[in-house]
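Sample intake sheet
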Amino acid sequence: MRIATWNINSIRTRHARAIDWMVREDVDVVAFQEIKCTEAQFPFAAFEDAGYEVVLHGLNQWNGVAIAARHAIEDVEVGFPGQPGFLKGHEGTDLPIEARAIGATVQGLRLWSLYVPNGRGLDDPHYAYKLDWLATLAGDVHDWLDQDPELPLALMGDFNIAPLDSDVGDPTFVQGVSTHISPPERAAFAAFAAAGLADVVRPIRPEGYTYWDYKQLRFPRNEGMRIDFVLGSRTFADRVVDASIHREERKGDGPSDHVPVVVDLDLSEVDDDDRPMIF
């Protein structure tokens, strides 16, 4: 089974390109981020014609997440328990919950498509919101795996964090000044490992960026960042047989600024001796 995550940066603009890639690469499930549309605006017919069912959470022209699959999509959950809200200039409870998380079960796998808040600036309220958002999700992951240690769980998406210095090739991101690389953000990312998840791509593909800004020839200069991940539970990771970063999708006409990150799984009975060492 082949699954992927892709910040598509507007599904209405790039759905033909996305579907072409999905069919060409024989992808079973894609977690999309930044679809930037409401349900009424989503191009369902094009996906259905290609054999994909879609569930989504989109509220307006910002954010938005979706899961497209060739298989039945079950147990759909919009937002995770306790997901914080945000409204610029406002604090407290009852803040609007943004369209940043959707979960579903496909072929027995519990998959989440996530678009983590950007943070904007170290002194911006959005930064505190980002850290709260991540901490709440990590707490939920801990609870889910405590309740079901064998749950084949994966968090997939744009985490807006570069966990390692080697994940940063964009010279505009400077330690101590920029979001995405600050110690609190990296600690928030590391909390998912403490909760029971592992990056299932890095052991197989240790190098490679997943995002390049449109500005200043960042892609031709390969001044990118690795900020898109698939974090899996032990049961999920045990089924991973390959992974890839599809850099070529940053080329051509009208690409997203992110590229797909792909994981191949063997859903047959697991033989630990034949699996890559993820944990």
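Comment: Residues 125-147 form the longest helix (23 residues). Residues 2-274 form a domain with the Deoxyribonuclease I; Chain A fold (CATH 3.60.10.10).
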